[in-house]
Amino acid sequence: MLTVYDCIVSDHDLRLVALAALVCALASLTAVNLLHHVRRADRGNRASWLCIAAASTGFGIWATHFIAMLAFSPSVPTAYNVVLTVVSLIAAVLLTGIGLGAALRPGLVAAPWIGGAIVGGGIAVMHYTGMAAFEVAGTITWNHWLVAASIGLGAAIGAAALSVALDSTVLRAKLSGALLLTLAICSHHFTAMGAVAITPDPSIALSSSSIHAGWLAAGVALVSLAILLIAVVALSLDIRDRRRASLEIERMRDLTDAAVEGLVVCAGDVIVTVNQSFARLTGLTAEQIAGRDLSEWVPDAAKRDTLFTFLGRAIETELRNADGALMPVELIARQISYNGAPHNVVAFRDLRDRRDAEAQIRYLAHHDPLTGLGNRASFDHRLDREIRFHRRARRQLALLCLDLDGFKEVNDIYGHAAGDRVLQDIAKHFSSVLGEGQMLARLGGDEFAIIAPLVTDPAQVGQLADTLLKSLAWEQDGIPAGLVSVSIGVALYPSDGKDRTELLSSADAALYRAKTEGKGTYRFFEAAMGAQIRERRSIEHDLRGAIANNELSLAYQPQAQVETGEVNGFEVLLRWNHPARGNVPPALFIPIAEESGLILKLGEWVMREACREAATWMRPLTIAVNVSALQLTSDGFVEFIEATLGETKLPSHRLEIEITETALVRDPNRALHSLQRLKAIGVNIAMDDFGTGYSSLSNLRAFPFDKIKIDRSFIQAVHANPQAAAIVRAVLGLGRGLGLPVIAEGVETAEELRFLGLEGCAEAQGYLFGRPAPIKEFVPLISANVVTLPQPHVKAARN
Ligand SMILES: Nc1nc2c(ncn2[C@@H]2O[C@H](COP(=O)(O)O[C@H]3[C@@H](O)[C@H](n4cnc5c(=O)[nH]c(N)nc54)O[C@@H]3COP(=O)(O)O)[C@@H](O)[C@H]2O)c(=O)[nH]1
């Protein structure tokens, strides 16, 4: 060390040494900056920038060496061999280029160390080649230990220099790297110079081809100038890169702040930076979080380990916020390069909404959203479980099926919102009377069911049913008490069914019986009820094939003038001749067709056949066709009538549709719309069965009726029941008041006809004029000549 010190202090011009150190520092800083630039450059430009970096570093090392050599004054003549001087420069450029390239080799952790060592080796090769170019009038002897030390120092410090320089893009790292590289060059040079001992020998002459130190100084000055220029370029590049990088960071920050997910950049477990979303999740500011440990927010250590071990894998855990509250989150970690160094970025997704939605979905899967009661799925599940339990325990279980009566009317008259409130109220009322362990569920629409476990005596269930019936005696929102009642069917396990399906079917059969026997009541299942249900299903099944199997036909019943007996038209009535059952009464199959929706298909068939038939008649008689509520409110009904009239060429004024009052309350707005459109195309509309339904005067005024049809039950009672006679008189008076003709149906006797004539009823229909029969039996009535039906008593009675 002393030798090296002596060498610098006594053999060198210290001003030039300082200059060499300055050039060296400048070259080193340029090298480090360019090295970073090479690392950032895209593939295409990388090689060019590496060459520039190699040239500037090589030149810098070379210039440092030769300025330092100029500073060296061994007191004997000196000169430099041109070829070897150039070779030393080439060696410096080449080897530093290789070293810098190696330092940037991707995927190799030790690359900066290896590259730095190569650069250090390059410094040594350059130095000793340069020393070989050094001619002196004397002999040079070397201290081999110092030679080895110089090589070792250059390589070791060079390796450390590149490792530090490439560790980060921050200025400090770059400056430290440049300083170490300066140290590598200088320590190598002066240690190597310390190894030199020159013994003057005047007999040794300098070769004539060698260049004088003055020329060398000029060359070195040029090289230094070049380094200076390259340094300026490198610096401006660095400034540009930094500006770009900071803009990029700003952009990234804006972007991450805009992200919905919380983002955290970690160095190990320490948080370096976070975005606004994460700050919001924790309830702190980004500044308060930076520098703290991730474990403060993700307390589950095992989950943290998994997160960083399996990068890219989503992990569900909990985040602790500033208040200590835990919230469910999903985390994914990835490795990124942040500030030039590898970091982990962790994305935090708030799972609270998802968990709420999942809970909501789970709730909806098992509950009825309107009433909050269990739904069919949870009811089925519970019933299965209870049946299994009662089978093992050999106990009895009751199943109650409940169906509201009059609920459709509530919907029709008061609207669906009122209907919903009624259902909610009813659910509350029913729930309030349930005993422990009993379950109430809404199976859909106005259907409810109750499971009553551990029944010891069926009378208990009867009491429960009674309480349920009474619980509906309430008034709500102007809906009168009694408008809605409930019918209940009860089945017992195991006697009425061994499994859920059987038990439900038995309770349904009992419910059907309760409905048909007056509503607002309850019935226990009896074996015979099952047969009834099966019978209905069988009729429905056979009815589906009735049109295709040609089992349907139409019967026609004349409608005549009361005064004259002249036939005005016919009512058409559907007949079903079942291959096994024979003639099935419409009163039996029409309600089944209405309940099952089959009436749509049947009704179309009746309408087409009736219009086709009527269009063939010689007399322009009317044809009255019954239309159910479902048909009237079905999509495309008016279009269908128009098309049928068009196809059959029946003039619209000859078609009359008969609508019952209940068909209007099903969907009054839609019914009115259809009737107005039918009326507009000339179809006549009769109100059927008047007196049996709501008999509402407002309906008569609100809907565009052309005729009122008094129900046959009143006509047949006019002589036995003064009230019936009064009703018939009232309806006839109503018709007169509203300017609507009235037709009386079910006229069977001359007395009834006489009564109607006396009361001023214009038209009648009934067995007296003719029973419903195939049209061929009425051929004279539909032929050209006017035929009157028997009505002798009317005028006689008048007179
Ligand atoms: N939607 C449709 N409904 C239809 C159709 N065809 C029939 N029906 C309805 O079925 C109910 C029963 O009909 P039906 O058994 O045919 O009874 C009708 C007549 O036979 C019966 N009637 C006629 N005159 C008399 C009589 O003097 N005495 C007596 N006891 N019964 C008589 O009345 C029924 C006609 O009723 P109405 O329709 O109210 O005029 C019945 O409700 C039919 O409407 C169809 O195609 N579509």
UniProtKB/TrEMBL annotation:
Residues 12-199 form the MHYT domain. CDD domains: EAL, GGDEF. The chain crosses the membrane at residues 16-35, 47-72, 78-101, 108-130, 142-166, 178-199, 211-237. InterPro entries: Biofilm_reg_signaling (IPR052155), EAL_dom (IPR001633), EAL_sf (IPR035919), GGDEF_dom (IPR000160), MHYT_dom (IPR005330), Nucleotide_cyclase (IPR029787), PAS (IPR000014), PAS-like_dom_sf (IPR035965). SMART domains: EAL, GGDEF. Signal peptide: none annotated. Residues 395-527 form the GGDEF domain. Keywords: Membrane, Transmembrane, Transmembrane helix. It comes from the Bacteria. PROSITE patterns: EAL, GGDEF, MHYT. Residues 536-786 form the EAL domain. Gene3D superfamilies: 3.30.70.270, EAL domain (3.20.20.450), PAS domain (3.30.450.20). This is EAL domain-containing protein.
